[in-house]
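Aim 2 progress update. The chain analyzed this quarter is reproduced below.
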Amino acid sequence: MFELGEKVIYRKELCTVKDIKKNHYHGKDYYVLVSENDPSLTIDIPTDNLGGNLRKIVTKEEAEEILSNIVTIEPIEVDERNLGYEYQSLLSNNNHQDLIRVMKTSYLKNQQKISASKKPSDRDQDYYEKAENYLCNELSLSLNISYEECKNSILSRLEQQ
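Predicted structure tokens:
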């Protein structure tokens, strides 16, 4: 059970538990979550969380491991026509490794285009930013660093490729 004021991840959204409603709907208790990125967004979710969409943020040790594994995670290998679908599919998972795969793939693809004096892909950049946002919101909190420091840490690891 989560406590009032605790930071949690609902799907990929960083939220704070603002309230726990007793017997709110069909006799079930519900958490009231408020998004950290958009305080006007509130989410009611059953405390039994049968859908598995609510979880604790990763620990500092887990966050450090996620960052250290960036260089070993393989980019996406899929036909260019299906890449958008693959990006979307990986973003919909609640998996840090999948977020990194999206970031790594889009970063490397855009670096190749820049090297060839071509314009980077807006699609790749958009997916990179979405994955970066989901990942850095959580990891920066776990590591007690700024969002920018988290972004820079990830980017420095991607540049090692």
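Helices lie at 60-68, 83-92, 96-115, 122-143, 147-158. The beta strands are 7-10, 13-25, 28-35, 42-46, 54-56. These observations will guide the mutagenesis experiments scheduled for the next reporting period.
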